[in-house]
Design a protein that fits this description.
heterodimer; B: mainly alpha; 0% strand
């Protein structure tokens, strides 16, 4: 029988344990330190990782804020384009970032509408494609469910402490930057030159800063355009930029408007959500954030304004704003066609507050 | 809390330091008891009450059994303990299963019955601590041990955190004498205990979670039939995953107990190098198989009541062993298949007395591994549809690839490495193997384990598979 079943420790290995264990620990520290140094030399910085838990914490913060809260709901554009500090100063409200990368606003807005205690303000990023087709597996549903599960818990448990501790570690090490795991960082950031440097940085309040000076342009722009076009993650490798332009123009010209039946069917539910919040004294506004170049052209072909945006605004009681209609907003250029550089967020947010008449004492 | 967590690291450091500082054995035991309840409460605080009440009832009943001279009264008290423990297990673990089966059965008879919706959360580790606790009352009833353990000792035996939620299923006769005698970890116990924790965590977080699990999940979660390569990668990969997951946990538990000076029984001994199904069960989840042998198979009559009854007893034991793993017919099927293998092996062995050559033994061992691996399919699949899809995929050429190339390679390479390692070491212990390495290699190996754990950290966090049982 193996020794650990024995009642005596005589069969246990008799080794020089201190040097053995200390040596193993030193190997770990040397490797982890080496990784951190290599990543630092490549310009990587520690960042907060996105998670349902972080979102739930912000959602719970909104509960505590009451009338002073301004919920930002939507997807990556509201995450990257809005500067919370500017919003805070200009509105007198406390903004809470509830945007979710690739997320649908529907479950989040529904959650706010059904929350009888919520009567604050909501700014919704209205990306019409999120209403154009069903998305039952969208991450936003999971986030909302996670929040509801957490809010039902009355006692702290292992998960709470582990979330806190792992967050404290991960946000301090480059090996975990952007939610990466060290193995991925080793393979794709240390041992091979990354295609794209770390250009996104999430802050503890879930703001995301995009620094487009750190990405290879115009390649990255084409990358985004092709991804928006057909979901593929890479432009064809053998094409020159001029050929990519030609390919994109041809493909965009052939695009047809998407079927608008689901969109029309879901509109009453969206209006009802906004009405519920407004009936309780809250305020809701819907904003189409700026886009540029090919991304804008693709959206215009697939989701023609007359079929989508105009129909939405025609039936909405809540204020709506299309950035393309406001010169102070449409003047901003999106380097990747879809989002603003972090240097533009402050000015854009200030112009947005003015255009929306947002504020604690706004009508 | 999980052993592979920051919370547990802090918990262990604090408890270990306090344990070293505590002046008396009574205080040390009290500390370990409180720490164990904190450890358990970390999952679901109200459920410590179930653990506490089960512990108190069994301790009290065993004490009455021990003091009583009347055989009828002793039998009644033992029955009370069995009913109480099995009712607890039945309600929490099998309540919904029983109701849904009753519903199906009545429907077949044309009776419409809608069972109440029981929103039951399974108390973690209930199968493990119930079996540990039952071993005490049964052994006291059999007069194999005395039933006068102090309450503090008994409560610590049941709840001692290294074995509380996923075993090894430590018996009272193994742990109570250790709890009774003042002890502190020797240098070798502490050193080897920490080594086991590192090796166990490496086995769990790197091999089970990062090498095997991604390929397994990709196939078992898919809605389509996998191609041949994917199906085999998932089938063999799950053999690797469940072994590394549970054996890794067991190593951690044994190592942690050693750090406090306690010695637990081994739970695995290179099961994939087994040369038969009986040999497999002598090497796989040893504390459960010996528990079932001693408290179920032998009381049923074992092999003492003729051949036919022996086969019935074997099948019953394995079916119940299967059901112990969870409230699903899939686990019963898994247990039944293993029961059938044991019966068939017993039948064949009875007719042949020829010793096997080394080559034949190795071939037989590989055959056992393949059969065991295929039998994991119903264990892993949530229903017969998934099981049929994965099993069908083993012979299904083509199909959309479900596993990325590197993961496919990792799964096959991982299982090959695991088999080679187990066959090379089947007759020696891990301690002996480790001690034979050069000191520099020992340091390098442990360092490599730590580095691999760091590299694989931060991904999807997976609980130990056996927590659900």
């Amino acid at each position: 029988m193996p020794s650990s079943t024995s009642s005596s420790d005589r069969r246990l290995p008799r080794l020089a344990w201190a040097p053995l264990l200390a040596g193993a620990l030193l190997i770990l520290l040397a490797c982890a330190g080496g990784m951190e140094t290599a990543l630092a030399l490549r310009g990587f910085r520690p960042s907060t990782a996105e998670s349902a838990r972080a979102w739930s914490e912000q959602r719970a913060r909104l509960d505590a804020l009451g009338d002073r809260g301004l919920a930002l709901v939507g997807a990556s554009r509201i995450l990257l384009d809005v500067d919370l500090a500017t919003l805070r100063v200009r509105t007198g409200l406390e903004p809470v970032q509830l945007g979710i990368e690739g997320g649908s606003f529907l479950p989040v807005l529904a959650g706010l509408a059904n929350d009888q205690d919520f009567h604050g303000q909501v700014m919704v990023e209205l990306e019409v494609q999120t209403l154009a087709e069903p998305a039952p597996g969208n991450a936003a549903f999971g986030y909302q469910q996670d929040y509801q599960r957490r809010s039902r818990k009355s006692l702290p448990d292992f998960r709470s402490s582990e979330d806190y501790l792992s967050d404290q570690v991960y946000r301090r090490l480059r090996s975990y930057a952007d939610g990466s795991r060290p193995l991925t960082a080793l393979l794709h950031r240390v041992l091979s030159r990354p295609l794209v440097d770390q250009y996104l940085r999430q802050l503890p309040d879930r703001e995301v800063l995009a620094d487009y000076s750190r990405v290879p342009m115009p390649y990255f722009y084409y990358f985004r355009a092709f991804r928006n076009l057909d979901g593929s993650s890479d432009p064809p490798a053998d094409l020159s930029f001029a050929q990519m332009d030609e390919r994109l123009r041809e493909r965009i010209a052939s695009l047809q408007p998407v079927d608008d039946r689901f969109f029309q069917g879901v509109l009453p539910a969206v209006y009802a959500m906004a009405s519920l919040i407004q009936q309780r004294g809250g305020k809701v506004s819907f904003v189409a954030f700026p886009t540029s170049g090919y991304v804008k052209q693709i959206d215009e072909r697939r989701y023609p304004r007359r079929l989508f945006w105009d129909r939405f605004t025609a039936g909405a009681d809540a204020p709506t704003l299309d950035s393309a209609e406001v010169p102070a907003l449409s003047a901003f250029d999106c380097p990747d066609g879809s989002h603003l550089d972090f240097r533009d967020r402050g000015r854009f947010t200030a112009a947005l507050v003015t255009a929306l008449h947002l504020g604690a004492h706004a009508p | 809390m999980l052993f592979n967590s920051f919370t547990f690291l802090i918990f262990f450091v604090v408890v270990f330091a306090l344990h070293r500082l505590m002046p008396g054995w009574g205080a040390k035991k009290l500390l370990l008891l409180v720490a164990s309840y904190v450890f358990y409460a970390a999952w679901n605080p109200p459920y410590v009450l179930i653990l506490l009440s089960s512990t108190t009832l069994d301790w009290w009943l065993a004490r009455l059994v021990w003091k009583s001279e009347s055989q009828a009264r002793r039998r009644l008290l033992l029955s009370l303990s069995l009913v109480a423990n099995l009712s607890l297990l039945g309600f929490f673990k099998y309540g919904n299963f029983l109701l849904s089966n009753a519903q199906g059965l009545l429907a077949m008879l044309g009776i419409s019955y809608v069972p109440p919706a029981l929103d039951i959360v399974l108390p973690i580790g209930i199968s493990f601590y119930t079996f540990a606790s039952l071993s005490y009352t049964i052994d006291v009833y059999r007069r194999e041990i005395e039933g006068d353990a102090p309450y503090l000792d008994y409560a610590l035996f049941v709840s001692f955190f290294p074995h509380l939620v996923a075993g090894p299923i430590v018996r009272a006769r193994q742990l109570l004498p250790q709890i009774k005698t003042p002890r502190s970890a020797s240098r070798d116990q502490l050193g080897w205990g920490l080594c086991l924790v590192i090796i166990g965590l490496f086995t769990k977080t790197v091999l089970a979670d990062s090498v095997f699990a991604p390929a397994v999940d990709a196939v078992y979660r898919a809605a389509t039939m996998p191609g041949t390569l994917d199906a085999w990668a998932a089938t063999l990969g799950f053999s690797g995953q469940i072994y590394c997951d549970f054996a890794g946990y067991s190593l951690c538990a044994i190592g942690l107990a050693l750090c406090f000076g306690f010695e637990f029984p081994d739970n695995f001994h290179y099961p994939y190098a087994a040369r038969g199904f009986a040999d497999f069960w002598h090497r796989w989840h040893i504390t459960l198989s010996t528990w079932l042998r001693d408290y179920l198979y032998i009381p049923l009559g074992g092999n003492r009541r003729g051949a036919a009854r022996t086969y019935v007893n074997l099948m019953l034991t394995m079916l119940i062993g299967g059901l112990w793993h969870g409230a699903s017919w899939m686990f019963v099927l898994w247990g039944g298949l293993h029961g059938a293998y044991l019966c068939a092996e017993r039948l064949l062995r009875g007719r042949s007395t020829l010793p096997l050559s080394k080559g034949a033994a190795t071939a037989g061992s590989l055959l056992v591994f393949m059969v065991v691996s295929l039998t994991w399919i119903p264990f892993r699949a949530r229903d017969t549809g998934v099981a049929a899809r994965v099993a069908g995929g083993l012979l299904h050429a083509g199909g959309k690839p479900l596993i990325d190339g590197p993961l496919l390679l990792a799964s096959f390479a991982g299982i090959l490495g695991l088999l080679l390692w187990q066959h090379a070491n089947r007759d020696i212990s891990l301690e002996q193997r480790f001690a034979r390495f050069h000191p520099a290699l020992q340091t390098l190996l442990l360092g490599a384990c730590l580095v691999a754990m760091f590299l694989c950290s931060g991904g999807d966090e997976r609980a130990f598979i056996y927590f659900q049982f």
